[in-house]
Amino acid sequence: MSLIVQKFGGTSVADTDKIRAAARKAVRAQQQGHQVVMVVSAMGKNTDVLVSLASEMSETPPAREMDMLLSTGEQVSVALVAMAIHGMGAKAVSLTGGQIGIRTDNSFTKARIQSISTARIERLLDEGNIVIAAGFQGIDEDLNITTLGRGGSDTTAVALAAVLGAETCEIYTDVDGVYTTDPRVLPEARHVGVISYDEMLELASLGAGVMHSRSIEFAKKFGVPIHVRSSFSDTEGTMIVAEPESASASVCGAALTRDEARITVLGVPDVPGTSLEIFSAISDRKIAVDMIVQNIGNDGRTDISFTVQHSDLESTLQAVSAAATQLGAVGITHDDQVSKVSVVGLGMAVQTGVAHKMFRALADAGVNIQMITTGEIKISVLVSRDQASNALRAVHQVFKLMDQPAERKSWAQIRAERHEKADVNTLVARLQSDALEELTLTGIDVMPNQARVTLRGVPDTPGIAADMFESVSEAGVFIDMIVQGIDGEDGRTSVSMTIPEKDLDTCLEVAKSLMKRHGLRDVQGGEGIAKVTVSGIGLRSHTNVGTIMFRALAGADINVQMINTSELQVNTVIDGKKAQIGRERLSAAFQEALR
Ligand SMILES: Nc1ncnc2c1ncn2[C@@H]1O[C@H](COP(=O)(O)OP(=O)(O)O)[C@@H](O)[C@H]1O
Ligand SMILES: N[C@@H](CC(=O)OP(=O)(O)O)C(=O)O
Hints:
The strands form four sheets. Strands 14-15-13-16-18-17-20-21-19-22-24-23 form a twelve-stranded antiparallel sheet. The protein starts with a strand and ends with a helix. Helix 1 (about 15-30) packs across helix 3 (about 65-85), helix 6 (about 155-165) runs parallel beside helix 8 and helix 11 (about 355-365) runs antiparallel to helix 15. Helix content is about 35%, strand content about 30%. It folds into two domains: about 5-245 and about 410-430, Carbamate kinase (3-Layer(aba) Sandwich), CATH 3.40.1160; about 255-400 and about 440-595, VC0802-like. It is of the alpha+beta class. It is globular. The structure holds adenosine-5'-diphosphate and aspartyl phosphate.
């Protein structure tokens, strides 16, 4: 008999009528011959209510007590759902995370799942029950209640689907699927039929709140098909699977993280180990850092900028100020009025011109770009918060995300094509050997013969980034990594890009003409560098990945010249002569960390 997991978010169980509707969906699925596990979130905005109750009691509530409190929201809804199902004449049993045996680590409020025991659920299912699991919670080794972080019920659902070998994990929510961007922010957003794990992982981690990014890590690792669909209708939603909807589209979606904060540590010594000092202090607090930009400085000093979620700003500033003092940094600045706008698409890994198209659209909309970082399948820009919605609209429009891509496949076509290839044995073996939410590495690679070009003292006005990247692309140079960040010296910015070494002279010539045109301070080029890439699943959400990398490289006296991070890859640019030793040190460091 096939098993399905159905997850109902807070909006889908917001009142007793909605709870009955959710219960009906589960009963109907059971009547159709499935075994059904439901995962349910707290009713409506109940978790927010609990959070504000806690803040009335204390400015800094202990994390353990926070989890004790927040887990109660889900306990209310699972009991009510079970009562509703009983009322419909079917059998149901509700279980808390602890009763199911969802073991987590002890990082209260941000716990990670370590193991799930399936015996009790399987027995209850075999006895004809619908099992209703409380989302977003577990227990640690000492039986303390833990929670997985806001939005974590998706992760509970996909994790249960993985360990139970479910046919599909259905995510019932208040939208009828995944859109090209949040339809509440941009009504012209398009409903997509299919999206790949990698694209959804990046979008979710960059602000698409429809899915919890860690749930997609699980789904990708264990090949769980996710069906995101409406609680209020029976229409087909969106399938999140290994394959993309369109093989030819460069961008599949755009995301906005409205509440970001930028921190810049000014004038730190430009020697190996500096980044380690700063980022290990942050990762100790389990804070995810994004958009790391290190500018090449003067007099052996450099400025390091990065972004964190606004809610992590205070804690990050505390962590960073101790590290900055230790390093003898000149100072720390921050801006809490910024937002991050990103575009994501598997196609951009092989197509050129995506970056300058985005920058041109932003310039035409009068949006100033404060920082830029790129990953293999994403480009993010930091903009002032009051320009965030305009920026999102401009990029959505320029990539024509509201229109169907010319070539696209439906889930039915993809499923038919992949049917013969499905290898059940591989999947089962993987389930047995892979740790649940542990970091998974898939490779460490070196790309030699790269060059870096840095343009310094770039005026912080709209349009210059677009002009730069258009000019370099027009000269036929393929740009790989791009970073732009705040320049500590005078509020101007620095832009660095990596290119193939053979194109360095051409790129420098273009850069010099840009220098004249825009009154830049100077242009620097360096050859003989290499990009070292660590690939895997969960690289950004495991906040210690950067620390492991920086420690390994600093230990070999290797200076990190540029870095970018994503859910799928961490790339560092280092001296090419040290690439091999860097690679070896990284392999050893990660082997140690993964043991
Ligand atoms: N790309 C996107 N596609 C669909 N919805 C999105 C997207 N990005 C953000 N959202 C938002 O996610 C919301 C659903 O998530 P959430 O409110 O957490 O639901 P639930 O309570 O069911 O977990 C939608 O109402 C929508 O506004
Ligand atoms: N109730 C928790 C967990 C959750 O995932 O909720 P929802 O499914 O409504 O996003 C929260 O609000 O964070």
